[in-house]
Prior knowledge:
By secondary structure, this protein is an alpha+beta fold. Helices cover 18% and strands 33% of the residues. It has two domains: 9-75 and 392-428, no CATH class; 86-371, 6 Propeller (Neuraminidase).
Amino acid sequence: MRGDTRDTRDRDKSTEKHRRVVGYFGRSLVGWFVCLLPTHTPHHTHLPSCNTIFSLACVGLLCRGLESLLLNQMEGNLDDDTRIKLSIGTKEQGDADGQFSEPLDLAFDHHRGLLFVVEYSNHRVQAFSCDDDDDDDDGGSFVSKFGEEGDQPGQLQYPWGITIDHDHDRILVADCDNNRVQSWSLSDQSLLSCIGHRGSDDLEFNDPQGIAVDKHHHRIIITDAGNHRLVFLSSIDLSFLFSIGSKQGSQPGEFSLPSSVAIDDDRHRIIVTDTNNNRVQVLSSIDGSFLFEFGSKGNQPGQLNYPQGLCIANHGRIIVADFFNNRLESFTHEGHHISSFDCGTEKPYGIAFDEHRGLIAFTAGHRVHVIGADQWLADTFTWRPDLHRYATSWTKQAVSTMTMIRSVVDECSAMSMIPNELLFEIFSWL
């Protein structure tokens, strides 16, 4: 099920050759543009002119983007994709802290700056830092873990899905082979509850996989894959409310091995990857009624082949882990295809979005990869006063530096009129 991601020696040599060629081309392009830049500086300062500074920033952006584009097209390798902010784990499976064996799902705790990852074959959950406030910390450091193999409360047997319920300060895990749902405290990761057993009646499951919180309607929604249905529980006491489906099929509102579920809170909708039907279904979160579907089997843009995880990003965009097509696919909230993110030889499984930091994290092989803010989809991080504190330290420093430069140049210059928001956009791409 997992692709072999080890590169051959010949491929390494070819990659290094391409890198030297692209690097030389990029440096030559910079030199050519610099020769065209104005050299005049204001008579009252020794600083470079504002036009020169701005032009250099634009040239740097152009060359960085060109190099990234050419290298990514030639290599198709996540290790060399400059849009990846960080990768956690190794290509080979392991059971040490910070290593993985088939990580499936993941969830951001944006309040604490943590990323939780559930491991299918290691029967546990690991937590990692996703903050980089310190210059020496790029995030991704191991913080804690819980769970071990077994069928007793607090133990896990091939766990699958995970979600964060901030309203009740807990972590919820779909304990797949134990056919139950367990919850742990977010504060100290102590066990809180354990419900369910194998079956198809109320509070019974058959391979539960995806799990999500509908905060507006105070519900927990679980994809009960083996029973081909969605199960709705009360988020207050985890009591059974109702279910949708149960008859395997391909008609609207029917499912065949649904794997993941996400909530579009702004539009009061439930989004489900209907895996064996190679489609995504969109339902009303009010009563679970069918609204529309998108996707069909294939490898063209907008088509899917065994879709797994999904998440909701800014503007209601739906991002799907297109497993057998080795890519992530993004869609508008209406189901129209936007763009694809090539995962090379690795097959993506789970995916999560952190709106406070603009990060997209996904599992592939035995690793977790995090795409930096605005590096694939625009506006994953939007400059707002309430989110500014989540910008990376180097971005804050860059904006502060440019703001200082702007304060000492001529008030009539173009630099003095550039808002911080635009400065942030410029430096987030450099």
